[in-house]
Design goal:
Blueprint (H helix, E strand, L loop, with lengths): L61 H7 L25 E2 L10 H4 L2 E2 L10 E2 L2 H4 L1 H7 L5 E2 L12 E4 L6 E4 L19 H13 L4 H5 L3 H17 L23 E7 L14 E7 L2
Parallel strand pairs: 5-8
Antiparallel strand pairs: 1-4, 2-3, 5-6, 7-8
Length: 286
C-alpha cells in the first residue's frame, strides 16, 4: 500500500504513516504483531502486565457493604423537618403610616419627633421631603384607622387608646371635619389629628384621684418630682393656680416620645373589648 508522506519542510525529517485496513486485523491482533512495511521489522513490544480485577462494591446499599467486607450499615439520609410558617392574619385594621408602630427602631425612621409633653403643633420633622409641614397638613386629615379590606375598609368612628401597663386610657372621637368628609361640619371618622390632639389633651389633665391613691409612697414621691421638672420646662404651668397639679403626663416619667400606635394583643385587651378595638400607644425615652 502506498504510504502518505507530508510535504517536506526544511530541517525536518519526514515521518511515514501506514494505513492498515481494519479487515486485515485478526481477532487476536495485538500491539505485539505490529511491524513496519518498510522492510526491517520493528522490535517486539513487551506484553502488558495482567492486573487482578476487583469488583467495586455497590456503595450506599447493605449488599454492597456485605460484598466489600464492611460491617457498618448505610447511613440513612437526614429527615427534613418542615418549619411551620406563621398563619396569615385576617381582619387586621389598617393604621395610618404617621401613626403606625412597626418595630423597635421606628424612632430612627419616624418622619417626625414628638415629645408628648409639648403641643403637637410644635413637632419637629425628621424627614421634610417625606412629611414636611405642607404635606402633614393634608395627611393629618386622613382617617387614623380603617377596618381591614375584607371588612369593608371603612374608617373608625372611635379609637380606644391605652398606655400598657399604665392605668391610662382615652377614647378618641371625631373632633373636626376632614377634607374627605362629605358632610361639612359633621366629621364621621377619627382623623390622625384627632389622635394627636386627644392624646395631648388627655395627658394634660390632672391625675385621677383614685389612681393617685393606689400608688405607693415612692411612686407618689417620684410623681411629684416629675411634676416639678415639668413646671420648670413649661411656662404655662408656672401659674400659681396650676403649678401644684400632677398631670397624667407625669405618669410617663421619661418615656414620653411618641412612637406610634399598634393593635393590642389578646392579653392587653380591656374587659368587654374585642381584637381590633383597642390600640396601644408605644413610647420611647424622650
Amino acid at each position: 500500500m502506498p504510504a502518505y508522506c507530508p510535504p517536506k519542510t526544511t530541517g525536518v525529517f519526514p515521518v511515514l504513516y501506514y494505513l492498515v485496513p481494519l479487515a486485515a486485523l485478526s481477532p487476536t491482533w495485538s500491539v505485539n504483531t505490529l511491524v513496519s512495511y518498510g522492510g526491517s521489522a520493528s522490535p517486539m513490544l513487551p506484553d502488558a502486565p495482567s492486573l487482578p480485577t476487583i469488583p467495586l462494591p455497590c456503595i450506599g446499599t447493605s449488599e454492597g457493604y456485605a460484598n466489600s467486607g464492611h460491617t457498618h450499615p448505610s447511613t440513612p439520609p437526614p429527615k427534613m423537618t418542615a418549619i411551620p410558617l406563621p398563619a396569615e392574619r385576617f381582619h387586621v385594621p389598617r393604621i395610618h403610616y404617621l401613626l403606625a408602630h412597626t418595630s423597635f427602631w421606628t424612632a430612627h425612621i419616624q418622619p417626625f419627633a414628638w415629645d408628648l409633653l409639648y403641643d403637637p403643633r410644635t413637632v419637629r420633622y425628621n424627614r421634610p421631603r417625606v412629611a414636611g409641614p405642607d404635606r402633614m397638613r393634608v395627611q393629618v386629615t386622613h382617617a387614623a384607622v380603617r377596618a381591614a379590606p375584607e371588612d369593608g375598609g371603612q374608617p373608625y368612628r372611635s379609637v380606644l387608646l391605652v398606655f400598657h401597663p399604665l392605668p391610662l386610657q382615652v377614647e378618641v372621637v371625631p373632633l373636626r371635619a376632614s377634607t374627605d368628609d362629605t358632610s361639612a361640619g359633621h366629621p364621621t371618622y377619627v382623623s390622625v389629628w384627632d389622635i394627636f390632639t386627644s392624646l395631648y389633651s388627655y395627658l394634660r389633665a390632672p391625675v385621677d384621684h383614685d389612681t393617685f391613691l393606689r400608688l405607693s409612697d415612692s411612686q407618689k414621691e417620684r410623681l411629684r418630682y416629675n411634676a416639678a421638672k415639668r413646671t420648670k420646662r413649661l411656662p404655662e404651668d408656672r401659674h400659681p393656680t396650676c403649678s401644684h397639679l400632677i398631670r397624667n403626663v407625669d405618669l410617663l416619667f421619661e418615656e414620653r416620645r411618641f412612637l406610634g400606635i399598634r393593635e393590642a394583643q389578646e392579653h392587653e385587651l380591656l374587659k368587654g373589648r374585642s381584637s381590633g378595638e383597642v390600640f396601644v400607644v408605644e413610647l420611647g425615652r424622650s
